[in-house]
Design goal:
The chain has 18 helices and 38 strands. The protein is of the alpha+beta class. This is Glycogen debranching enzyme N-terminal domain-containing protein.
């Protein structure tokens, strides 16, 4: 039985259905993304967007959508839906009877005595989407016509009618192929059944993406419909269409659909939806396994996002240690400059320590792990010594000072008019907590499993120096918590979640009484049912709703919006300080995400939520950070129940 369903009254209500999005990935870097009523509302929406490595490796929309027309008894019923300004034409959503994930999206249309089930399925190892049309009921003489809408453009930009477009086609086995511009791959549309094709290229002008309009971006584009495919159908007819950058054998299309569907993770429970979401975040980028940061506009292989999300995705979710190390090895190989020399993500290299600590807690052999990755962590630490990096360096007090005019050097990295919203120059509390954790871990591992006595001898005084100065620099008796950062203008008094890491990480420079005080104020001012606020509502800069133009949204992003991924660190801190008694409260914290499983990204979880109730979701509709840390929290809950 399907866990996610929508009924007719929900689907025909565009105010409701246009806000709920389907998203699926192939594992090869291709994806499909649209709304549950099949109307595209973003420039990122597509039935098939693929990476093109001979360009820049970015994703490009090839197939924007496919419109179906059913003809019976002299009447045509158009199942597609597009917006032209405020006008929707056609309005095929009114024929949708229901929608369910079982395990892939299945949309049932009912009109003119016809009952049609349309199923969408991405193949796991190629740039291919399969669309199955199954006619449960169909009067004699029923005809179905399919019209593909082509874009052939980068996901971040829109396209318009132009004379450079190649409007021709070539025949392939039981199908046709298009390539609108030189350098693109061919889009092969092939079918399991016979058809008649009419080539009649036509631009559809002014298709409008309402979500881009709402966000203040360019929102209109022109799409090319090159022709139509016509099928004679009857009750029991099943047609499967393959849209792919590779030509396939049409005789195997139906069996491939069945085979892929049978190997797809069932969507019959919340837990399986989490696993499916985790699996969709693992991409094979030209033979290199990477974590995709989030659908549909983020990138794979990002340093910070991968370091944080990797344990939740690969270990707690998929239970695959080999995958964990493969992705980590690829990340280290691709990020030597950032890890060892310079980066605007100054805390990311230090967070690698926490990733490895989680791996050891999961059961990895500490000796083997230090033998493999010890040199990486030691070189990361050395890169923060004076004179090694321009953007950050250790001061005589043992703490890290990071400052670069006009640059946001931490994870709070939004910009308005080229200037950071939260520059945070100086000693950042989370950076120095991560620094301390990394130094302590490296000393312990090298002392136990290494042979570099000089490293231990040199770094032990540095660790002691951090211990002696951390609280003196960051703690405020007046506030009862840690400063967010201490910069050229002194102690910053904003109440933010960055101090959470001073409790959650394995090694803390704070005594237990101070850690408990930090957790008390975080729970009182920052904890919500959809993550941890990025700023206390008591602050004058607090913005509790992510709305308005781009500048307004960027201002709110780290000044009030919640970040669900911080729940992983929060849960770890609770268990570390308060033990099993935390389980009930932590369980309630993540229960709300199950309620949101059919909101925004259907079957997955969003990047950010409003700081104010009802905590509406925003940002990337499927975030690797959110998915990974929800899985991590559930893992911690179950682990503590077993003890």
């Amino acid at each position: 039985m399907a866990y996610i369903k929508f009924n007719k009254s929900e689907l025909v209500n565009l105010e409701y259905s246009l806000k709920r999005e389907l998203v699926a990935g192939s594992g090869s870097g291709a994806y499909g993304n649209t709304t549950i009523c099949m109307c595209n509302t973003r420039k990122y929406h597509a039935l098939l967007a693929v990476p093109i490595y001979n360009f820049d490796g970015g994703r490009y929309v090839l197939l924007s959508s496919v419109d179906e027309t059913l003809s019976v008894a002299g009447k045509d019923f158009h199942l597609g839906i597009h917006a032209y300004g405020d006008i929707y034409d056609p309005r095929g959503h009114k024929y949708i009877r229901d929608f369910e994930m079982d395990p892939s999206p299945v949309i049932t249309y009912e009109v003119g005595g016809i009952v049609l089930k349309k199923s969408l399925l991405f193949t796991p190892d190629s740039n291919q989407i399969l669309i199955k049309y199954a006619f449960v009921e169909a009067p004699a003489g029923t005809v179905m016509s399919l019209s593909p809408f082509l874009a052939f453009r980068r996901t971040h930009v829109l396209t318009h009618k132009n004379s450079e477009a190649d409007l021709s086609f070539k025949e392939v086995a039981n199908g046709v192929a298009y390539r609108m511009y030189e350098g693109f791959p061919y889009l092969n549309l092939q079918f399991s059944e016979a058809f008649e094709y009419t080539h009649n290229p036509m631009w559809y002008l002014g298709i409008t993406y309402s979500d881009e309009y709402r966000r203040g971006f360019d929102c209109k584009e022109d799409l090319m419909v090159p022709g139509s495919f016509v099928f004679n159908v009857k009750k029991g007819t099943t047609i499967v269409m393959s849209a792919s950058t590779n030509e396939v054998n049409p005789k195997g299309i139906k069996s491939r659909f069945t085979r892929v569907l049978s190997s797809t993770i069932p969507t019959d429970s919340y837990e399986n939806l989490l696993l499916a979401a985790a699996k969709s975040m693992v991409w094979d980028v030209q033979g290199s396994k990477q974590i995709y940061a989030g659908y549909s506009w983020l990138k794979p292989g990002l340093l910070r996002e991968t370091i944080i999300a990797l344990p939740g995705i690969a270990l707690y979710g998929l239970g695959d240690r080999k995958l964990f190390e493969e992705i980590l090895d690829n990340l280290i190989r691709d990020n030597e400059e950032r890890l060892f020399h310079r980066t605007t993500q100054i805390e990311a290299p230090l967070l690698l320590t926490d990733t490895l600590q989680q791996y050891i807690d999961f059961g990895a052999d500490a000796r083997r792990l230090w033998g493999k990755y010890g040199y990486v962590l030691k070189n990361i630490l050395k890169s923060y010594l004076p004179g090694r990096r321009e953007e950050v360096a250790m001061h005589p007090n043992g703490l890290l000072w990071a400052q670069k005019d006009g640059a946001a050097l931490t994870w709070m990295n939004t910009y308005i008019a080229g200037r950071p919203v939260n520059e945070r120059p100086g000693y950042q509390v989370e950076v120095n907590t991560m620094w301390y954790n990394a130094v302590c871990f490296a000393i312990e591992m090298e002392d136990k499993y290494g042979s570099d006595d000089a490293f231990v001898r040199i770094w032990t005084p540095i660790r002691n120096n951090i211990e002696n100065n951390f609280k003196q620099v960051f703690w405020s008796d007046e506030l009862g918590h840690l400063a967010d950062f201490c910069g050229p203008e002194g102690m910053n008094r904003e109440m933010r979640p960055n101090q959470l890491y001073a409790v959650s990480l394995d090694y803390s420079p704070l005594d237990e009484m101070s850690q408990a005080a930090v957790m008390k104020v975080i729970r009182r001012e920052l904890v919500t049912s959809r993550g941890i606020r990025t700023l206390s509502p008591k602050d004058r800069r607090y913005k509790g709703v992510y709305e308005g133009n781009q500048n307004m949204r960027d201002e709110a992003s780290y000044n009030g919006c919640t970040r669900p991924f911080l729940l992983g660190a929060y849960a770890k801190a609770c268990y570390k300080l308060f033990g099993h008694s935390s389980t009930s409260f932590i369980s309630k914290l993540i229960e709300g995400f199950e309620e949101d499983i059919n909101i925004h990204g259907v079957g997955t979880f969003s990047e950010i939520y409003d700081g104010d109730p009802p905590h509406s979701p925003h940002g990337a509709i499927s975030s690797a950070l959110t998915v990974a840390e929800i899985i991590r929290v559930k893992y911690m809950i179950e682990k503590n129940r077993e003890i």
